[in-house]
Here is the input.
Amino acid sequence: LKDKDAHYFEIDIPDEKKVEHNTEDNKENFIDTEESDISFLELIFPNFQFKSFAFIICSLQLFFYLITYFYWAVSNSSWECVLYKFGAGFEPDVRHNYAIHRLMLTPMFLHYNFEHLATNLLGQCIILFHLEASYPRQIVIAIYLFHNLMFHLYV
Here is the structure.
């Protein structure tokens, strides 16, 4: 750094091409470290806010997974029975017992194991934070719910 208070540093240029530059007049060989100082978290999750839809829905999914896990730990049931009890998508129930909530509402909060939860949360956070940076919250919620409905109708 040329000056303690300066936020610029010189780009390394070979000696034969090096020319003295005044930092006030010509900044083309300098990089502003304040403007380019983006953290890895901000790069992956732009527009991160605790009140964003992405954070809220991912927190709910994590909370719901912990509830189902603790219920499984204290009960004598298999993991599949716990998922069914908590509303997992089960086609015969939807078709014969009209359990419509098993199409979208409860299955979007259920995960088969921790790896399933972790990959879903990472993917959802990356996509939803990017969407929320570009579109209004209502559009993002509509896209998310439509995607979940279509996925659970297909599966």
